[in-house]
Amino acid sequence: MLRRFAAICILLAGLGPAGALAQSMGAPLDTGLTDSPILVIDFDRVFAQSAFGQRLEDTLESEGSAIAAENRRIEAELIEEERRLTDQRPTMPPAEFRNLADAFDEKVQRLRSEQDAKARALSARQDEARRRFLSLAEPAIEQLMRETGAVMILERRAVFVAADAVDATDRAIALLDHVVGDGGSDVLPDLPEGAVPDAEPADDRIPEAPATAD
C-alpha cells in the first residue's frame, strides 16, 4: 500500500511541471511549509485523521464488531446444544446418538465456513477501503502540489530522514477534508459477488462435535 501511495505521488509529479505551473500562477500559497520542491506525507495519519478515513474506519469497525458479536452468539448456542446432546447420550442407543452427533458436526462445520467467509469479506473490504481512499485523495494531493510548488511528494516512512518543515501531512488532511469531506452517502460500496478472496480459516472457538464411541 505504501508503494502504491508513493507511486501515485511520483505519478502526479510527472503529470506536469508543478513548480513551473505554480510560478506561472504566481507565488505558491502560504501553507506554513518551507519552500521545498519535495514534501513528505504520513499516509497512515492522513487516513486515520481525515474525515473520510475516520468514516471508513468507523464503518469497518462496526462491521467487524457485528461479526464478532455473531460469532459469540453462535458459540454460546453451539456449546449449549453440545451440552444437551452430551447429557442425552447415556439414555440413547449408540446408533441414534451417532446420527445426532454427525448432524451436529455438519452444522458446526457449516457455521464455521460461513463465519470464515464473512471474515474474509471484511478483510477484502478493508483493502478496498484503502484503494478507494487513495483514489479520492489524488485531487487533494494535486492541489497540495499546486499550492506549494512542489514537484514531488513522498510517503514519509519511505524517507530515511526529513525535516518537519517539509512534512505536509496536516495540510493534506485539511485539503482532503475540504475536497472529499466524509465521502458522502456511498462511503464503501459492497464488494461484487465472488470478490471474497481465498484465505486460511479464521481462528475461532466454535466447538467440535461430541465424540462418539462404538
Automatic annotation (TrEMBL):
InterPro entries documented for this protein: Chaperone_Skp (IPR005632), Skp_dom_sf (IPR024930)
Write out the ranges of the annotated region (Disordered).
186-214
**Signal peptide per UniProt:** 1-22
| Gene Ontology cellular component list | cytosol
Instruction: Fetch the Pfam families from UniProt.
Output: OmpH
One Gene Ontology term of the biological-process aspect is:
protein stabilization
Give the domain of life.
Bacteria
This entry's Gene Ontology molecular function terms read: unfolded protein binding
In the UniProt record, does the keyword Signal occur?
Answer: yes
Q: Is Amino-acid biosynthesis given among the entry's keywords?
A: no
Q: Which UniProt keywords apply?
A: Signal
Query: Which family does the UniProt entry place this protein in?
Result: Belongs to the Skp family.
This chain belongs to which protein, by name?
A: OmpH family outer membrane protein
